[in-house]
Design a protein that fits this description.
This protein has helices at about 35-45, 75-85, 130-135, 150-160, 200-220, and strands at about 10-15, 20-25, 25-30, 50-55, 65-70, 90-95, 100, 120-125, 140-145, 165-170, 185-190, 195-200. The chain is of the alpha/beta class. It has one domain: 3-Layer(aba) Sandwich (Rossmann fold). A hairpin with a 4-residue loop joins strand 11 and strand 12 (about 195-200). The structure holds ligand PMT. Ligand PMT binds near residues 33, 34, 99, 145 and 146.
């Protein structure tokens, strides 16, 4: 409805893992299921937003009324985000993007060497979140920080270093929370404030996260 909290707002969300090819049949990835990002997309639609979901490969269905752009690698996710971000008011980076890709990915299936080990070399992928936040006409930019130690400290340094409006710190060392589970817990940090979103379903956390995003977004529009 026109009175919904995010009515008329255009939100882009990244979700899921990326896959970085080693050769045509093998890849490096991570445990992201896409559940958190898809829950945010669903909640954003329910709150009245127009949603673009840029998704890595996942095994869940996208929510209804969301424009989905499917990608595989970090470079593809970067290209999809950067070509379309201009028309969005808010960007939420929930994807678990590979920081590195294999430098010398093979065009053919690699063969096993009888006695030798295998050494791969890596180069850095572009940082999607940092690139969006650095745009001249950057949207309100929200990052996630998946950490296994010193969570708040690392999240705050990401907030400042990447010039974000907000970061959701996600302790991924606790069993049953974070990667691939149905529940999560977040500490949401802005340059001035800190909010705790206690353990809950990803669906309900998504709504509460978006309420904070909307409140802080309005502050930047004053
Ligand atoms: O998908 P689920 O199974 O539901 O799990 C949810 C989740 C744990 C993946 C999610 O809640 C989460 O924490 N996502 C961020 C995971 C991550 O890769 O965090 P990071 O600290 O490595 O990255 C920091 C931020 O930079 C993230 O917003 C990430 O999307 C972004 N990034 C990172 C690297 C890169 N090249 N480009 C990016 O945009």
């Amino acid at each position: 409805s026109k009175n919904a909290l995010l009515s008329g707002k255009r939100i882009m969300i990244t979700a899921g893992p990326t896959r970085e090819a080693i050769d045509p049949v093998r890849y490096i990835s991570n445990h992201s299921s896409g559940k958190m990002g898809y829950a945010i997309a669903k909640a954003a639609v329910e709150l009245g937003a127009k949603v673009t979901l840029v998704s890595g490969p996942v095994n869940i269905l996208p929510p209804e009324n969301v424009e989905v752009e499917s990608v595989v690698s970090a470079q593809q996710m970067y290209d999809a985000v950067m070509s379309d971000i201009g028309s969005h008011d808010i960007f939420i980076a929930c994807a678990a993007v590979a920081d590195y890709r294999v430098d010398n990915a093979s065009n053919h299936k690699m063969k096993k060497n009888k006695d030798d080990g295998l050494t791969l070399s890596f180069i850095q992928n572009p940082d999607i979140l940092k690139s969006v936040a650095a745009l001249d006409t950057a949207p309100f930019t929200v990052g996630f920080a998946a950490e296994t130690q010193d969570m708040i400290e690392y999240a705050k340094s990401k907030l400042i270093r990447k010039k974000l409006n907000m970061i959701a710190a996600n302790d991924v060392s606790k069993p049953g929370l974070g990667f691939n589970s149905d529940k999560n817990a977040l500490i949401v940090i802005t340059p001035e404030k800190e909010y705790e979103l206690a353990q809950a379903s990803k669906d309900s956390l998504a709504v509460n996260l978006l309420r904070l995003v909307e409140r802080e977004y309005q502050e930047t529009q004053k």
